[in-house]
Amino acid sequence: MRRSASIGVMPIIPFDRTSQVPFYQQIYEGVRAAITSGRLMPGQRLPSTRTLAEELHISRYPVFSAFDQLLQEGYLDGKVGSGTFVRYNIPDDVNRPIGARRPAPGAASAPVAPSTPDVESEREHGTGPLAVSSPALDHFPTEIFARLIRRHLTGPPELLAYGDPAGYGPLREAVVEYLRTARAVDCDASQVLILSGSQMGLIVSALALTTPESAVCVEEPGYPGARQALGAAGATIIPVEVDSDGIDVAALARLDRPIGLVYVTPSHQYPLGMSMGLARRLELLRWAANASAWIIEDDYDSEYRYSSRPVGSLQGMDSDGRVIYLGTFSRGLFPALRIGYMVVPRQLVERFLRVRATLDIFSPTLYQLAVNDFLREGQFARHLRRMRAIYVARRDALLGAIQEEAADVLTVGNTDAGLHVVAYLGDGIDDNDVALRAASLGVFPRALSSCYMTSAVRPGLIMGFGGSDESVLRGAITTLANLIRNLE
Amino acid sequence: MRRSASIGVMPIIPFDRTSQVPFYQQIYEGVRAAITSGRLMPGQRLPSTRTLAEELHISRYPVFSAFDQLLQEGYLDGKVGSGTFVRYNIPDDVNRPIGARRPAPGAASAPVAPSTPDVESEREHGTGPLAVSSPALDHFPTEIFARLIRRHLTGPPELLAYGDPAGYGPLREAVVEYLRTARAVDCDASQVLILSGSQMGLIVSALALTTPESAVCVEEPGYPGARQALGAAGATIIPVEVDSDGIDVAALARLDRPIGLVYVTPSHQYPLGMSMGLARRLELLRWAANASAWIIEDDYDSEYRYSSRPVGSLQGMDSDGRVIYLGTFSRGLFPALRIGYMVVPRQLVERFLRVRATLDIFSPTLYQLAVNDFLREGQFARHLRRMRAIYVARRDALLGAIQEEAADVLTVGNTDAGLHVVAYLGDGIDDNDVALRAASLGVFPRALSSCYMTSAVRPGLIMGFGGSDESVLRGAITTLANLIRNLE
User: Fold this and answer.
1) Which of A353, A357, B59, B84 is deepest in the core (most CB within 10 A)?
2) Does B200 touch chain A (CB under 8 A)?
3) What is the mean pLDDT of residues A42-48?
4) Distance CA B311, CA B279 (A)
């Protein structure tokens, strides 16, 4: 049974008592969709939790939970129990410290998992101290994963044959489930393509959606591997500056030519690390709908978030089917796996599938089978929980070392997510020079200026903390601080 | 020590008594290179085997072996022992039945191995009876390969990290060794890129070498998956007809616009199955050198050759560095592996590597390690020998069934190599219609007309015999013959 609740200023939200989707989640998603679609306007008052609970004939607890989550995510203002309103100014940063609050339900409460664009030319993927995009491979549960591989090694001959270019069916279903729970992505398995790494999603998008006449916007600064891939079909790449809230949509709207595609990293901007606030997300989605532009949301490391609650995906807020969502298992599992995925708007699925098949036909079957088991048996969720604690410790060691030993030469930027931080250098310092000298000393930060198409606003170093333990990180910062102090 | 032999009309060939390369092979390769480079001209008489042996201070046997091989391959004319000449008309078909002759040494004597372009949209890669490109997966040595995989499953964490986009170094070396021995490919490991299937080599070539202004020639009829991939960067695809000797180079030369790239399958034309003779090969290489065009040599199934001796690769005859060589392990091992490789002219290596990294960064490490062991431990050579016997039996069963049950409706074309044959239908029959009806009966030949960009000269069916055993093949032909006879 599906019934609609219309209470006070509450717009109609779908609610189904017989659904397996928990009540709080139905309410959370219904209200959120109403806000993001504009059916609930800023300043509108929501009914009390009591009223809504009575209207729906359910207990008050799930309503309370849903409102709490919406408050925390910055969709609502006020106080649960004493009047809640749709926020006027949806804040720049909707992420608030979790602190001692009990876990809230809904999209953000489940274990959050892997995705990575962190690619560029692979030769930039070193494994030494401070190298960007390296997960903690020394903590990977090799034995568990090996057991899953062994299970499929001597399977039936059909598993050796050509597979589905869209990916192994059960894995696509498992990815849907994971993305729905952890990232509030709204899709079914027919929209999921399993890729040989998320980088492939960029090439597929470029070949499917662009021509030499196209203009593609990327974040400035941004992920260099995206620029390279998105230009593969000859499109013009246009850098659009980011501010503290992500890509500047007003600047995007002012461009004097039609834009077909925009590449963004809203969960954790690469490289600067901020997340895109709700207001900016809605602005971006509105712009894309008006401009008939496609958005690539590269959710490359949303599984690792430390001091704030993850916002759901941009894809899940999009009611116009403009968002192509990219993710990867390179960080959640390991890079040598080469398994990523994309979620494609329905009307693009056929076209994307054709291009994907042209690239490498399909991804190796054995790993798809093993990852499917890893997800379905709960190993993935367990692994991510373990890894989050390890990364928090590594991040804290890195930040501590910078504060203690390098505060005079390095100024740290955003630090609450992912596996890297940006540390700014003093004005006038050549970050490429520093990165080169550091490499010769066995330390591998990346120059921030390498992420700019135009000239960098401020020199800096991108430092990965995922791949090295605490003592290595501290040693690397000592080396780096000495190097910077001794630049002539 | 390296000494040069200059005897009679014999041009200088490199010869090194201390080399590990067998004497016969040094002589074979030296003379062949002299012929293909034009240093030895048609009609020139070679010294007698006795004279050459004396001059080189070696026994007569290796000289005799080398000349015998060159005679068999059609480079020389005459009779070993009574005067040999460089052939005037290098024959259309240099492949002669081996019959009862003892195995000759040189490039063609070693086990020949895997490579496959057989891609298209993967959905065309069925696994049912007569499906093209399916190897005999029921005979794959699963246990042996599983043992190699297990060996690397719990290796050091570095194996989980990002790998070299060019491929795992030792595997690249092993591929060089295999290609040198089995396919007379002339390269070193720096020119080898390991790919996620050979299909990826087509996309890499298209993105690295073409723009929307480019013209790319393909064989007509030809491999549809190549057309799709080679057009990825917007190039114009021009079909050039094949005759009984492969692509018509004269027609290529008559085109009124510059051609940047040509795609050919000289070992075993897809789909028609003939091999390109020596004269045509030399003509093609000369044309490419003059036109500054690149050639993609897709050596997709040269490992399986039954009644004739394989010719070496086009790449090995090319003294101008114009040939990009593609191969795959999809047929020699199995398709779900997704490992192929390309050999790239030196001046293109950097450019190709950059593009390859943009596509999917690198191929999964685990499989690269296992394939490397499989090659180095001799498993690959053993496996290919076993498979050749199986494929001969399957091919013979298919041909026998056609002769006995379908000779009135199917006329078989070339049959001495690969895993498929083409059987022509009577004029006026719609092969797409036959293929569709066949699929509804559980039999999956491919319509020959699907390989044409223009209209097909003659309707036909491409039938794979690799993936089904003899009784299944016979049943499929019975079904097909009845279907064709009953077309209204």
Assistant:
1) A357
2) yes
3) 73
4) 12
d(CA B265, CA B426): 27
* Residues in contact with A293: Cβ distance below 8 Å, sequence separation at least 6, in sequence order: A259, A260, A261, A262, A287, A322
The reported pLDDT for the residue numbered A106 is 33
CB contact A427 to B (< 8 Å): no
Do B127 and A158 make contact, defined as CB atoms within 8 angstroms? Answer: yes
pLDDT digit string (tens) for A47-68?
778 777 877 778 877 888 788 7
Helix (H) or strand (E) segment spanning residue B210: none
Residues of B in contact with A374 (CB under 8 A): none
DSSP A84-124: EEE-SS--S------TTPPPP-STTTSPP-------SSGGG
Taking the C-alpha atoms of residue B397 and residue B377, their distance in angstroms, rounded to an integer, is: 32
Asked if residues A337 and B362 have their Cβ atoms less than 8 Å apart, the reply is no
Nearest to B361 by CA among A174, A229, A241: A229
* Cβ of residue B207 closer than 8 Å to a chain A Cβ: yes
The single-letter DSSP state of residue B305 is B
Average pLDDT, chain A: 85
Q: What is the distance between the alpha carbons of residues A202 and A208, in angstroms, rounded to a whole number?
A: 10
Question: Given A163, A229, A232, which is nearest B336 (Cβ)?
Answer: A163
What is the model's pLDDT at position A436?
94
Nearest CB partner across the interface for A360, out of B153, B199, B358: B199
SS3 label, residue B30: helix
Alpha-carbon gap, residue B404 to B409, rounded angstroms: 11
Give, for B97, the enclosing helix (H) or strand (E).
none
Find how far residue B20's CA is from the centre of its chain: 27
Amino acid at B15: F
Q: Which helix (H) or strand (E) holds B467?
A: none
| Dihedral over Cα of B14, B17, B22, B27: its sign | positive
B-chain residues near A161 (CB < 8 A): 125, 127, 134, 137, 334-336, 467
User: Does pLDDT of B247 surpass 60?
Assistant: yes
pLDDT tens digits for B91-148?
Answer: 433 322 222 223 333 333 323 222 233 333 333 556 789 999 889 999 999 999 999 9
Q: How far apart are CA B354 and CA B165, in angstroms?
A: 8
Q: Which residue has the higher pLDDT, A116 or B408?
A: B408
Rounded Cα distance, B309 and A263, in Å: 53
Sign of the Cα torsion B382, A361, B353, A196 reads: negative
Residues of B in contact with A134 (CB under 8 A): 161-162
Candidates B140, B160, B197; nearest CB to A360 = B197
Chain B residues 211-230 with CB within 8 Å of chain A = 211-212, 225, 228-229
Taking the Cβ of residue B464 and every Cβ of chain A, the question of whether any pair is shorter than 8 Å is answered with: no
Q: Is the ipTM of this complex over 0.85?
A: no
Query: Of B289, B313, B305, B335, which Cα lies nearest the Cα of B415?
Result: B305
Instruction: Decide: residue A146, CB within 10 A, 0-12 exposed, 13-18 middle, 19+ buried.
Output: middle
CA nearest neighbour of B310 among B466, B182, B415: B182
Distance of alpha carbon A262 from alpha carbon A297, whole angstroms: 9
Residue A428 contacts B, CB cutoff 8 Å: no
Q: Between A and B, how many CB-CB pairs are < 8 A?
A: 207
Dihedral pair phi/psi, residue A447, rounded to 5°: -70, 130
Closest CB to B234 among A164, A203, A212: A212
Residue owning tokens 């993936």: B467
Average pLDDT over residues A184-197: 96
Q: Please indicate whether, in this complex, the C-beta atoms of A160 and B143 are within 8 angstroms of each other.
A: no
Among the partner-chain residues B121, B160, B354, the one whose CB lies closest to the CB of A140 is B160
**How far apart (Å, rounded) are the C-alpha atoms in residues A341 and A321?**
17
Tokens 């002012």 sit on residue: A254
Structure tokens at B254: 């008559």
CB of B295 less than 8 A from some CB of A: no
